[in-house]
Amino acid sequence: MNMQEFIKNRSQFPAEELWKYIGKYVAWSPDGTKIIASDDDGGQRLAAAIRAAGFDPSETLVSFVSDPDEVFLGGGGIIE
Question: Residue 66 and residue 44: Cα distance in Å, rounded?
Protein backbone atom coordinates (compact mmCIF):
# COMPACT_ATOMS: atom_id res chain seq x y z
CA MET A 1 0.00 0.00 0.00
CA ASN A 2 1.34 3.39 -0.99
CA MET A 3 0.28 5.58 1.95
CA GLN A 4 0.84 8.87 0.12
CA GLU A 5 -1.45 7.73 -2.68
CA PHE A 6 -3.97 6.36 -0.18
CA ILE A 7 -4.10 9.60 1.83
CA LYS A 8 -4.41 11.74 -1.31
CA ASN A 9 -7.25 9.63 -2.71
CA ARG A 10 -9.00 9.19 0.64
CA SER A 11 -9.03 12.98 1.17
CA GLN A 12 -10.81 13.34 -2.20
CA PHE A 13 -13.47 10.71 -1.42
CA PRO A 14 -16.92 12.34 -1.75
CA ALA A 15 -18.38 13.22 1.66
CA GLU A 16 -21.89 12.43 0.40
CA GLU A 17 -20.78 8.88 -0.35
CA LEU A 18 -19.08 8.51 3.03
CA TRP A 19 -22.22 9.71 4.86
CA LYS A 20 -23.98 6.51 3.73
CA TYR A 21 -21.73 4.68 6.20
CA ILE A 22 -22.25 6.80 9.34
CA GLY A 23 -22.03 4.55 12.41
CA LYS A 24 -20.27 1.77 10.52
CA TYR A 25 -16.75 0.46 10.09
CA VAL A 26 -15.52 0.68 6.53
CA ALA A 27 -12.67 -1.09 4.76
CA TRP A 28 -10.83 0.97 2.18
CA SER A 29 -9.32 -0.18 -1.09
CA PRO A 30 -5.50 -0.11 -1.00
CA ASP A 31 -5.46 3.06 -3.10
CA GLY A 32 -8.11 4.84 -0.99
CA THR A 33 -10.50 5.42 -3.87
CA LYS A 34 -13.40 3.25 -2.69
CA ILE A 35 -14.95 1.41 0.21
CA ILE A 36 -14.70 -2.32 -0.35
CA ALA A 37 -16.75 -3.51 2.65
CA SER A 38 -18.64 -2.20 5.69
CA ASP A 39 -20.25 -3.52 8.85
CA ASP A 40 -21.71 -2.34 12.15
CA ASP A 41 -18.65 -3.61 14.00
CA GLY A 42 -15.06 -4.10 12.98
CA GLY A 43 -15.02 -7.82 13.75
CA GLN A 44 -15.24 -11.12 11.94
CA ARG A 45 -18.14 -10.19 9.63
CA LEU A 46 -16.17 -7.26 8.27
CA ALA A 47 -13.07 -9.43 7.85
CA ALA A 48 -15.18 -11.98 5.95
CA ALA A 49 -16.60 -9.25 3.70
CA ILE A 50 -13.08 -7.97 3.01
CA ARG A 51 -11.96 -11.49 2.04
CA ALA A 52 -15.08 -11.94 -0.13
CA ALA A 53 -14.12 -8.73 -1.97
CA GLY A 54 -10.74 -10.31 -2.74
CA PHE A 55 -8.57 -8.48 -0.22
CA ASP A 56 -6.47 -9.53 2.78
CA PRO A 57 -7.98 -8.12 6.02
CA SER A 58 -4.51 -7.85 7.58
CA GLU A 59 -3.46 -5.49 4.78
CA THR A 60 -6.66 -3.44 4.61
CA LEU A 61 -7.18 -0.12 6.36
CA VAL A 62 -10.42 -0.02 8.37
CA SER A 63 -11.91 3.11 9.89
CA PHE A 64 -15.08 4.10 11.75
CA VAL A 65 -17.36 6.69 10.16
CA SER A 66 -18.55 9.07 12.87
CA ASP A 67 -21.62 11.24 12.60
CA PRO A 68 -20.25 14.72 11.81
CA ASP A 69 -23.10 16.26 13.85
CA GLU A 70 -22.13 14.44 17.06
CA VAL A 71 -19.62 15.87 19.47
CA PHE A 72 -17.49 13.50 21.54
CA LEU A 73 -16.04 15.02 24.67
CA GLY A 74 -13.07 13.47 26.40
CA GLY A 75 -12.34 13.47 30.08
CA GLY A 76 -13.57 11.14 32.71
CA GLY A 77 -12.07 12.41 35.93
CA ILE A 78 -14.11 14.07 38.63
CA ILE A 79 -13.01 17.55 39.53
CA GLU A 80 -13.60 18.54 43.14
Answer: 20
- For the segment 19-47, what is each residue's pLDDT rounded down to a tens digit? 999 999 999 999 999 999 999 988 899 99
Q: What is the DSSP letter of 1?
A: -
- pLDDT confidence bin for 69, thresholds 50/70/90: confident
Beta bridge partners of 38: 26
Residues 27 and 63: their CA atoms lie apart, in Å, by 7
Separation of first and last alpha carbons in the chain: 49
Phi, psi angles (nearest 5°) of residue 51:
-60, -40
- Structural contact between residues 21 and 13, judged by C-beta atoms closer than 8 angstroms: no
> What's the mean per-residue pLDDT of the chain?
88
Q: Which amino acid makes up residue 69?
A: D
